[in-house]
Specification:
Layout (H helix, E strand, L loop, with lengths): L3 H13 L2 E5 L5 H9 L4 E4 L2 H9 L6 E4 L8 H4 L5 E5 L2 H13 L4 E8 L11 H13 L7 E9 L6 H21 L9 E3 L6 H6 L4 E4 L1 H4 L4
Parallel strand pairs: 1-2, 1-8, 2-3, 3-4, 4-5, 5-6, 6-7
Helix pairs in contact: 6-7
The structure holds pyridoxal-5'-phosphate.
Length: about 220
C-alpha cells in the first residue's frame, strides 16, 4: 500500500526539518490506522472526547497532539497520555495542566498559542500577552515544574490573500524567536514553531515552521 500525498508531505517536511502532524479530527479510526501502517506516528485531534475514544483503540506509540481549544475542566481526561498540547492561552490553563501532570507523575509538553490573524473567531494570546505570560512562567518555573513550554502555535487568517498569510506566518515565527531569546534557559527544548495547515503549509515552511498540522490534504474534506 502507498499514499503519495503522505509521502510527498513527509519528504517536504524532512527537507525543511519540520514535523508532520496528521490532523485526524472527525475521521474514523480506520483512516488513522491506514497512515499508521505507512509509518506516520504523529496525529492531531481537536476534541477531548474524540481523542480519548480514538486513542484507546489505537497503538500506544502514536504521539497525540491536542490542537483544539482546551477547557480547564477537560485537561484531566487527556493528561495521562497526551504528547503535546498546542493551544495554551492562559496561566490558569497552564496551572491546571501542571496539576494534572503532577497527578500522573509526568511532564506535559505545551505550546503557547499566539493570535495574529485579522479575524474575530480565533483563540490565542496577542504577541505581547504571550511574551508577558512566558516571562511570568520563566520567573516562577518551580510553580510549573510539570509543564515544558516547547514553543508557540499559531494560525494565519483564512484568506486567499497570500501576502497577508505570509505576513502573519512571519509574525508567528517572530514571536517564537523572541520567546527563545527572552527565555535562554529554555532554548534546548523550546524548539517548536507550530504553523501551517493544508492551505498554507508551504509558505509556513518557508517562513520557518518546524511543525505543520495537515488535515484535509491527507484525509479529504471534512463533512
Ligand atoms: C483542523 C485543523 C488543522 C488542519 O486543517 P486542514 O486545513 O484540514 O489541513 C490544523 N490546525 C488546527 C488548529 C485545526 O483545527
Amino acid at each position: 500500500m502507498e499514499n503519495t500525498v503522505l509521502q510527498q508531505l513527509q519528504e517536504e517536511c524532512a527537507r525543511a526539518n519540520a514535523l508532520l502532524v496528521a490532523v485526524s479530527k472527525t475521521k474514523p479510526v480506520s483512516a488513522i490506522e491506514e497512515l499508521y501502517q505507512l509509518g506516520q506516528r504523529d496525529f492531531g485531534e481537536n476534541y477531548v472526547q474524540e481523542l480519548v475514544e480514538k486513542s484507546a483503540s489505537l497503538p500506544g506509540d502514536i504521539r497525540w497532539h491536542f490542537i483544539g481549544h482546551l477547557q480547564r475542566n477537560k485537561v484531566k481526561y487527556i493528561a495521562p497520555f497526551v504528547g503535546l498540547i498546542h493551544a495554551v492561552d492562559s496561566e490558569a490553563l497552564l496551572e491546571e495542566i501542571h496539576k494534572q501532570a503532577l497527578r500522573h507523575n509526568r511532564v506535559i509538553d505545551v505550546l503557547l498559542q499566539v493570535y495574529v490573524a485579522r479575524e474575530e473567531t480565533k483563540y490565542g494570546l496577542e504577541p505581547t500577552e504571550l511574551l508577558d505570560l512566558a516571562s511570568r512562567i520563566y520567573a516562577r518555573s518551580g510553580a510549573f515544574a510539570q509543564v515544558r513550554i516547547r514553543g508557540v502555535m499559531g494560525m494565519a487568517s483564512f484568506t486567499d490573500d497570500q501576502v497577508q498569510v505570509r505576513r502573519e506566518l512571519r509574525e508567528i515565527r517572530g514571536v517564537f524567536d523572541r520567546l527563545r531569546a527572552q527565555c535562554p534557559e529554555w532554548q534546548d527544548f523550546c524548539t517548536i514553531c507550530s504553523m501551517g495547515m493544508s492551505g498554507d503549509y508551504r509558505v509556513a515552511l518557508e517562513e520557518g515552521s518546524t511543525l505543520v498540522r495537515i488535515g484535509s490534504m491527507l484525509f479529504g474534506k471534512r463533512g
